[in-house]
Amino acid sequence: AFAQDAARAASSLEISVAVSVEFGLGDQPGIEFAVRQIADSGARITLCIAYAAGDISIIAAVAEQHGMLGSGHAWIVSEEGITPELFSASQITGWFTVSINLLLGERAARFQ
Known about the structure:
The chain is α/β, with parallel strands linked by helices. The protein has 5 helices and 3 strands. It has helices at 2-12, 28-41, 53-65, 84-89, 106-109, and strands spanning 45-48, 74-78, 95-98. It has a 3-stranded parallel beta sheet, with no helix packed on it. Strand 2, helix 4 and strand 3 form a beta-alpha-beta unit. Helix 2 crosses helix 3 (53-65). The longest helix has 14 residues, at 28-41. The termini are close together.
């Protein structure tokens, strides 16, 4: 639901969304599928909301296989899953982290 809402919000701001995919916490096949979908779309800027370091590690590994971590690609990644080891173990460049604030009440319902 969050990805769909984010895509609608981007569209209202005239931001083109090439692909919007979701995966479950710890769902390695789902994560691999999602990253392949992004790679196949040709997108160069990726917004990634993930909450577990293991998920971010899988995302980075698959993205690296598809040449998505070097020059010409930018990632905006939720900071919850980022670890220093991730950056020292791969060729990640162009990653920015964002802090996702928890929403309460009616606002939270829009993202569930």
